[in-house]
Amino acid sequence: MTEQSITATGSQTSVKKGALIAWAFYDWANNGFATVILTFIFSAIFYNAMLSGSQRIGMSMVIVLLLTGGILMLNVAKAS
Q: Which of 1, 12, 50, 80 shows the greatest Cβ crowding within 10 Å of its Cβ?
């Protein structure tokens, strides 16, 4: 089997087809993992923190979410 190379339009970077497929599978698996963590595990922890009556825990979780969202937003803005 011969190795094929893929070049994006307007790009000087050439990527081997096998490497591209490997990255696609990694990205697919990683997205599923993140979705499960954020949807089920984090929401269960967040819900329990809110039910426990501890406003300090709930507020700290909200602050962490705001900070991480802001950091992501700034990184995306830099990349654009």
A: 50
Amino acid at 42: F
Q: What residue has token string 């300090």?
A: 56
pLDDT digits (tens, 9 = 90+) for 32-47: 888 888 788 877 877 7
**How does pLDDT run across 2-15, given as a tens digit for each residue?**
566 666 666 667 78
- For residues 7 and 14, the answer to whether their CB atoms sit within 8 Å is yes
Q: Tell me, what DSSP letter sits at residue 15?
A: E
Per domain, the residue ranges of the chain are 5-79
Q: Give CA torsion, residues 22, 25, 31, 34, to 10 deg.
A: -80
